[in-house]
Write the structure tokens for this entry.
Amino acid sequence: MKSSYNLAGAEQKIMQALWENGGTLSTGDLLDLLNRQGKPWKRQTLNTLLSRLEAKGVISRPRAYVEALISQKDLLQLQTKEILDSFYGGKLKNFCAALIGDTRLDDSEVKSLNAMIEELQKEQEGKGDK
């Protein structure tokens, strides 16, 4: 079972390479691509990282291929949810209070936030109708 969607830097590079190349690459092509980006990668290092990503449920490895099972947007949303749950009791208001801290919002920021909240409420109401 997945323990966390938190990705180490090298794991993030692998996912980025997959997303930028259609979501699926052969392990050989992935290794070549990562090697062309700078620091040389060893096959064993790649296999170790792929095992970790597979355990996290973000990739699968059918035969000699690596396939992203989650989009970049969806992964970011899951990571954000983990942070919200872990550090802010799952409460968006706690996160916002920590983010803003002692900062004073100007009128345009307040209007922008209110507009975003209204838009989110409309989206939620629309989902409830289905």
